[in-house]
Amino acid sequence: MSLKKKPVTGMRDILPAEMQIRDYILNQIKDTYRSFGFSSIETPCVEHIENLLSKQGGDNEKLIFKIMKRGEKLNLEAAETENDLSDSGLRYDLTLPLSRYFANNAANLPSPFKALQVGNVWRADRPQKGRYRQFVQCDIDILGDATNQAEIELILATTTALSRICPGRSFTVRINDRRILRAMAVYSGFPEEDVEKVFITVDKMDKIGVDGVKAELLDNGYGEGAVDKCLDLMEKASDDVSGVRTMGELLNGVLEEGAAENLAQIMETVNRVSDVDCRLVFDPTLVRGMGYYTGTIFEVSMEGFDGSVAGGGRYDRMIGKFTGIDTPACGFSIGFERIVLILLDTGFTVPGGNGKEAWLFEKGMDNERICSIMKEAMEARTQGRTVLVAQMNKNKKFQKEQLGKEGYQEFREFYKEELK
Amino acid sequence: MSLKKKPVTGMRDILPAEMQIRDYILNQIKDTYRSFGFSSIETPCVEHIENLLSKQGGDNEKLIFKIMKRGEKLNLEAAETENDLSDSGLRYDLTLPLSRYFANNAANLPSPFKALQVGNVWRADRPQKGRYRQFVQCDIDILGDATNQAEIELILATTTALSRICPGRSFTVRINDRRILRAMAVYSGFPEEDVEKVFITVDKMDKIGVDGVKAELLDNGYGEGAVDKCLDLMEKASDDVSGVRTMGELLNGVLEEGAAENLAQIMETVNRVSDVDCRLVFDPTLVRGMGYYTGTIFEVSMEGFDGSVAGGGRYDRMIGKFTGIDTPACGFSIGFERIVLILLDTGFTVPGGNGKEAWLFEKGMDNERICSIMKEAMEARTQGRTVLVAQMNKNKKFQKEQLGKEGYQEFREFYKEELK
Predict the structure, then answer these.
(1) CB contact under 8 A, A110 and B399
(2) Whether A381 and B110 lie within 8 Å, measured CB to CB
(3) What are phi and psi of A326, to 5 degrees?
(4) Choice between B259 and B55, residue whose per-residue pLDDT is larger
(5) Which residues contact A125 (CB under 8 A, 6 or more apart)?
(6) Which of A43, A188, A259, A323 has the fewest CB atoms within 10 Å of its CB?
(7) Handedness of CA A303, A306, A310, A315 (dihedral sign)
(8) For this UniProt entry, what's an example GO CC term (chains A, B) (predicted)?
(9) Contact check, Cβ <8 Å, A388/B76
(10) What is the Cα–Cα distance from B85 to B236, expressed in whole angstroms?
(11) How does pLDDT run across B8-33, given as a tens digit for each residue?
(12) How far is CA A57 from CA A19, A53, A61, B170, B250, in A?
C-alpha cells in the first residue's frame, strides 16, 4: 500500500517562498516585542483535557483535537463516552496555557510579567480558504499589572510591530470596555443575567448592521424600549476621548467608578506617546467573542484591508481559576496568518532576501577542483554570504529557474575546462 | 473544581532564561544552514496515522500520541480496536513528514532540494531527566542528490553550525555505510535475512562492549565462527580513510562496487574543505537505530561530553514509499535539546544578552511625566535598545532581583519629586 502524500485534512505544507515571509514577519514581531521588554516563553502544545474544557475557550472547545489515553489508561471496553478515552488535547489558543504557566511558575517570574509566546494552535474548524486547522498565534501578555499601563504598553508594542511589518500603512485601534458594555445593557433595561447573550447579538454589528442587530434582539424576546435605548446610547458618544467621558457621564451610577476615565486615559496616553500612524477610536459596539474578557478590549485594523489584524483585552479572572487568587492579566494577539496572507497577496518580497548565490559545477569534475570550489564557498559563508554549491543538472536553464523561485539571483558556473 | 497547574506528564513549561538560550542556538543553526543554501520548510505537526504506522519509524511507532477521530467518523460503539478511533497522530520525527512533503510538492521545488526543518515532535517515552515527551528537532536534508556531494554538504554545514554554537570545542564525526555493515555480516557467514537483527546487537557496542555483543550474538544462536569473523573484521581496519579502503579490499566481491571509495571520498573531501576542528573517523561498528538508512550513516560527538550531539544518514527508499519512485535522500539532525542541556549545564550566557534596561517609575506619578518617560523609551527602542517601563513595586529590591534573572542589569528610577 502506498502512503498518503497530502497533508491531513485542513492542514498544509509550507513552501520555502512563504516560509521566508513567515520568518521575516516573526522576526520583526519578536524584535519589536523584545525591545519593549517582553520575554519569550513556551508552553506544551498538549494540554490537560480538563483545562481545555473548562469553559474558558467558548466555542473553540467544540473544535478540540483530543488525544487518546495510552497503555493501561485506555480502556476501550469500559469507555462510555468520548471523554473516557482522552486525557489531553491540542491547545486551541495560547491564553489558557499561559494562564496555567503563570499559575505554575509565578514564583520564578518578575511581577508584572511581560510574556511573549509564539506557537501553533489547533482548531478543527471547517476547512476554507485562508483558514487552516493548524495555525500560528503570536501573543503578548502582561500579567500582574492592574493599572492601565498594561493596556498602554500592549497597544504601543503591537502597533509598533505592525507598522514595522507594513510600513506606510495607517492603523485604527478600536477600543471599548466590557464594563461599559455591561453598564449600557443594564442602563437600557436588559436583565443583568442576559447581558452575555445580548453581547453575542451586538457582536454581529459588523455583519448584519444596526437593523439586523435590532431585529435579532427583538426576535430573542427583548422589549423594543430596551433595544432602542441601548442602540441609541451606542450612537450618542463620539468616537474619541471625549466620547468615552460623555459615555461615563451618561452611565453615571450604573458604570463602575473610574472605568470611563481609565479608558480615556489609555487613549490619551497612546495618542501622545505613539509614533505610529494609528488612530484610537472608541467603539461602544465592540464586543469580541471570548467570554473571559473582564475590562478593556481592543481590535486593530489596517488601512485597505477588511477585518482585524490584531486583537485582545483584559481577562482578570482566568489565572484565578488555576490558583484560587485572581491575578490581573491583559493580552494582545497579532493575527499572524492574516498578515502573512496580506503580504503574499500584495506581492511582498523580503528585504535583503536577494543576493543569494548558486554555484553550479559541471558533472564529472575532478575532486581536486570541487574541493577548491567548496573551500571558496566556505570562506564566502563566513563573510555572511549565502552560497549554494550544487552539481549542474542536464537542464541548466530549468535548474536556474527553480532556484530563482527560492531567491537565487546570482549564478556562477564552473566547467571542467575553463571557458575562455 | 480548580484547574491543573502542572503541564501534562512528561512535557514542560520553558522559562525565559532557557528560552533565551534556545532562541540563540536556533538562530545560530538557522543562519549557518541558510548560508549553505538550505531553505526553511514546515510540515503539520499532525500526520496521517497510516503514514506514522508504516514501519518507517521503528520503535518510535509504539510511542505515538494518537488523535481521536471527530464527529460522525468517531463511532465508539462499532470500534473494536484503538486504531478504529484514530485517523491521525502527532509526528514522532521530521523525516517521515519531510518525505511526504517532498512527494507532495516536488514539482514546485528545485532538484536537488536542500531542506531545513525545525519543529516539535512527540514521543510518549517514559519521562526521565532531560528527556521529554515534546521536544524540538532540527533537521537538514538534501533530496534528489544521489552523489556524495549531499553527505559532504551535510557534514560541513552541521559541524560548522555546532562549532559556532560551541566555539573552541573539537568534534568527532564517526562515519560508516549500511552497505559495509551488511557486507561484513554476509562475508562473516550470517544469514542474509538476519542482517538487521545482527545490527541491533552490534548497535549496543557502546553500552555492552565487544564481549557483550559477542555473548548476545551467541545467545541468539549464531555460530561462534561467524561472530568471531565479524568482530575481527571490525577491528582490522584503521579508523581513517585508508581503513575504509582496506575494508573495501577485504570485502571485495561482497560489498557493492564503489561503496568503499564513495565513503573514502566523503572523508577526504570534508577533511580538505572543513575549517572546523573536527576529526572524521571510520567506525565499522556504527549502526544507528532507524531501519530506513540505506547507505552512509554518521554521528557527531563533542569533546568533553558523552553521547552524540548530531546524527544522520542516507535513506534512499523512503520517498518511494509515497511516490512509487525511489528518490535519493540524505539527512542530518542536530540534537537540539542535548545541546541546550550542555549549554545550561556549563553556565552559558547569551552574547549581547546584557544591556537590557528597566525603567521604573514611582507609583502615583502624574500622567504627564509618565508620558514623557514612555516617549523617551520609544525613542530608545527605535535605536535597538531594550527598554522595559514598569511601575516601581513596594519591594523595589526584590523587583530588581527578579528582573536581573531575566537579564536586566541597567536600571533607571523615576520619582515624583526629582532626587536632588
Answers:
(1) yes
(2) no
(3) -60, 140
(4) B259
(5) A10, A63, A131, A133
(6) A323
(7) positive
(8) cytoplasm
(9) no
(10) 53
(11) 999 999 999 999 999 999 999 999 99
(12) 29, 8, 6, 50, 67
Q: Do B274 and A378 touch (CB under 8 A)?
A: yes
Nearest CB neighbour to A65, from listed B67, B265, B384: B67
CB B183 within 8 A of CB B177: no
* Of B218 and A351, more confident: B218
Residue A141: partners with Cβ closer than 8 Å, 6 or more residues away: A95, A98, A114, A115, A117, A329, A330, A331, A332
In total, the C-beta contacts within 8 angstroms joining chain A to chain B are 295
Nearest CA in chain B to A156: B378
Residues A353 and A404 sit within 8 Å (Cβ to Cβ): no
Residue identified by cell 478593556 is A296
User: Over 50: is that where the pLDDT of B420 sits?
Assistant: no
Q: Is the dihedral of CA B118, B53, A65, A326 positive or negative?
A: negative
DSSP A350: -
For the segment A282-335, what is each residue's pLDDT rounded down to a tens digit? 999 999 977 789 999 999 999 999 889 999 999 999 999 999 999 999 999 999
* pLDDT computed for residue A1 by the predictor: 54
Whole-angstrom Cα distance, residue A399 to residue A397?
Answer: 5
Looking at residue A91, what DSSP letter applies?
-
Of the candidates B5, B68, B374, which has its C-beta nearest A86's C-beta? Answer: B68
- Give kind and range of the element (H or E) at residue B56: none
B81 CA: distance to closest CA in chain A (Å): 8
Read off the pLDDT of residues A244-261 as tens digits, 9 standing for 90 and up: 999 999 999 999 999 999
To the question of whether residue B315 is assigned a binding role by annotation, the answer is: no
Burial A329-367 (b: 16+ CB within 10 A, else e): bbbbbbbbbbbbebbeeeebebeebeebbbbbbeeeeee
Q: Reduced to 3 states, what is the DSSP secondary structure of residue B347?
A: coil
Choose among B86, B104, B384: nearest Cβ to A68. B86
**Distances in Å between the alpha carbon of A154 and those of A136, A140, A162, A319, A333?**
19, 7, 12, 19, 10
Is some CB atom of chain B closer than 8 A to the CB atom of A383?
no
All domains of chain B in start order, with CATH: 16-345 (3.30.930.10), 356-414 (no CATH)
Q: What letters, b where the CB count within 10 A reaches 16 and e where it falls short, cover B388-413? A: bbbbbbeeeeebbebbeebbbeeeee
Q: Are the beta carbons of B172 and B278 closer than 8 angstroms?
A: yes
